[in-house]
């Protein structure tokens, strides 16, 4: 209690603390709940989730102190709800285990490896252009979100596992359904006070989750076993692995899985279970996040036609007038204005709106005590919209990220959509290139337009671990006239 007095925060009841807030709250309410807390008490606030002492912060100094502290790398308890699915993969694992895994996985995100994935982003984007063709033809408004989700699922299956589920053409795929189900049930548990308790095991949700996870694990296990066999066979023959699935667009590629199969940890190869945990983690972290990133970027482009025009001009200047010309890593690097637009989108709509840490040993931050056992919540989303840190925070101004005066250069801890420090997002470059790839393809074929009957209110946001548009992103698309110059 003495420690609690160092902080401002709402009055709390004995034992249940501020737990009543979380009763019957939706994922939409949750976004506003923390906003209200910061409006009332500032950007460092204490409260109790039941008996759990919790500190919320959206303050750059605090965020810097937390994310750079080697003793604050463990995730908060809520992440545990994902552990049936993701095990000790990179997102959830702790201390020594995390450190060893991060070290061996980092090379898998080397730019030379990302380079070979650009073709996967581009080929799937061409497919998406095709799938959306019917909406360009009939002019009807449609929710772009589910289509982008299928695109990102195709990309992550191919890059993580080297398999194709062809989600865009086959959205009924058992695997695709199971990914969606496992993600949504695990996440709902975090926010529902009842579902957080063992009562959950008596609900139909538990049975569904079990079934989905069983299916997902079986799928990944299968791919791992057959890939390992191929790899062994090919090393016996001293030949290159060259299976059917391995050849995309005529070029051989290695999925993350192949790299994991070849690597070793403390002198021994990774077990199938360890590999599965990492592949499943990529599957989880690598699709919902980019889906929100792409969808909210399209929303902003439709909302600000002059910005869309400028992005389109840049794309044509870099890639020329042939809408089918594939992008490369080099051309993606030249799309600097598009990158600013994506970064500004992630400021207002960060795919991961909050992250959590568990304090293992007592630390002092900005003169205040953070006792061992404290749950810490970092408000990436709220900091991005705070008038103390951004002029006109709700205005969409991509130039904030321009050159030397860029927000990131000025104070990197003011802008952390990919987190920062040791446990930052390992997939950041992968994600940015994927988003740039698909947007540059879509924009060469279609103009994105806000439907006329759309009220011009900002989208209602829902925080399901990943920030999502509660009512989707309804947009219209118009085919672009062929360019000849
Ligand atoms: C716009 C897209 C993305 C955003 C905004 C994003 C954001 C984040 C954030 C904020 C974290 C920190 C989580 C935490 O502290 O609990 C994180 C971690 C992580 N991300 Fe991403 N991510 C994106 C895309 C991706 C992609 C495409 C992949 C994989 C291909 C990926 C893989 C990971 C992994 C494995 C971690 C855990 C890293 C660790 O703890 O060592 N992410 N991401």
TrEMBL record:
InterPro entries attached to this UniProt entry: Cyt_P450 (IPR001128), Cyt_P450_CS (IPR017972), Cyt_P450_E_grp-I (IPR002401), Cyt_P450_sf (IPR036396), Cytochrome_P450_Monoox (IPR050196)
* Swiss-Prot/TrEMBL cofactor(s): heme
Q: What is its main location?
A: endoplasmic reticulum
**Gene Ontology CC terms:** endoplasmic reticulum membrane
Membrane topology recorded in Swiss-Prot or TrEMBL:
Peripheral membrane protein
Q: Where in the cell is it found?
A: Endoplasmic reticulum membrane; Microsome membrane
Membrane-traversing stretches = none
What superkingdom heads the lineage? Answer: Eukaryota
One of the entry's Gene Ontology molecular-function terms is: monooxygenase activity
A Pfam family this protein belongs to?
A: p450
Which keywords, in A-to-Z order, does the entry hold? Endoplasmic reticulum, Heme, Iron, Metal-binding, Microsome, Monooxygenase, Oxidoreductase, Signal
Q: Which residues bind heme?
A: 425
The Swiss-Prot or TrEMBL record describes its family as follows: Belongs to the cytochrome P450 family.
Q: What is this protein called?
A: Cytochrome P450
């Amino acid at each position: 209690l003495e420690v609690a007095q160092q902080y401002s925060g709402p009055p709390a009841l004995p034992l249940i603390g501020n737990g009543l807030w979380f009763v019957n709250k939706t994922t939409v309410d949750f976004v506003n709940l923390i906003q209200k807390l910061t409006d009332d008490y500032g950007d460092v606030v204490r409260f109790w989730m039941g008996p759990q002492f919790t500190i919320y912060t959206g303050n750059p100094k605090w965020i810097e102190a937390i994310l750079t502290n080697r003793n604050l790398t463990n995730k908060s308890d809520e992440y545990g709800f994902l552990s049936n699915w993701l095990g000790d993969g990179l997102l959830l694992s702790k201390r020594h285990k995390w450190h060893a895994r991060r070290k061996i996985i980092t090379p898998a995100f080397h730019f030379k490896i990302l380079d070979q994935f650009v073709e996967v982003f581009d080929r799937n984007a061409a497919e998406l252009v095709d799938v959306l063709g019917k909406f360009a033809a009939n002019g009807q408004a449609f929710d772009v979100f589910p289509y982008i989700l299928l695109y990102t699922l195709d990309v992550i299956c191919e890059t993580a596992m080297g398999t194709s589920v062809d989600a865009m053409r086959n959205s009924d795929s058992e695997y695709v359904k199971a990914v969606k189900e496992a993600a949504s049930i695990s996440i709902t548990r975090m926010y529902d006070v009842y579902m957080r308790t063992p009562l959950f095991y008596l609900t139909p949700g538990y049975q569904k989750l079990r079934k989905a996870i069983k299916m997902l694990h079986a799928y990944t296990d299968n791919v791992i076993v057959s890939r390992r066999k191929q790899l062994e066979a090919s090393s016996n023959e001293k030949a290159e692995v060259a299976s059917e699935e391995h050849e995309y667009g005529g070029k051989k590629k290695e999925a993350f899985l192949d790299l994991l199969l070849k690597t070793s940890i403390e002198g021994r190869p990774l077990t199938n279970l360890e590999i599965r945990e990492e592949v499943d983690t990529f599957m989880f972290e690598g699709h919902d996040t980019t889906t929100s990133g792409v969808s909210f970027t399209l929303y902003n482009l439709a909302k600000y036609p002059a910005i869309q025009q400028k992005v389109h001009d840049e794309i044509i200047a870099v890639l020329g007038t042939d809408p089918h010309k594939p992008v490369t890593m080099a051309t993606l690097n030249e799309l600097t204005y598009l990158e600013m637009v994506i970064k500004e989108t992630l400021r207002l709509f960060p795919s991961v709106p909050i992250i959590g840490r568990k304090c293992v040993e007592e630390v002092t931050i900005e003169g205040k005590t953070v006792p061992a056992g404290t749950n810490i919540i970092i408000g990436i989303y709220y900091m991005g919209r705070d008038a103390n840190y951004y002029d006109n925070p709700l205005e969409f101004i991509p130039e904030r990220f321009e050159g030397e005066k860029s927000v990131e250069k000025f104070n990197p801890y003011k802008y952390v959509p990919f987190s920062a420090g040791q446990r930052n997002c390992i997939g950041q470059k992968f994600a940015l290139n994927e988003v740039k790839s698909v947007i540059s393809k879509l924009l060469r074929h279609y103009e994105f337009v806000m439907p006329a009957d759309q009220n011009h209110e900002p989208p209602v946001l829902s925080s399901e671990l990943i920030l999502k548009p509660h009512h989707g992103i309804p947009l219209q698309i118009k085919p672009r006239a062929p360019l000849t110059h």
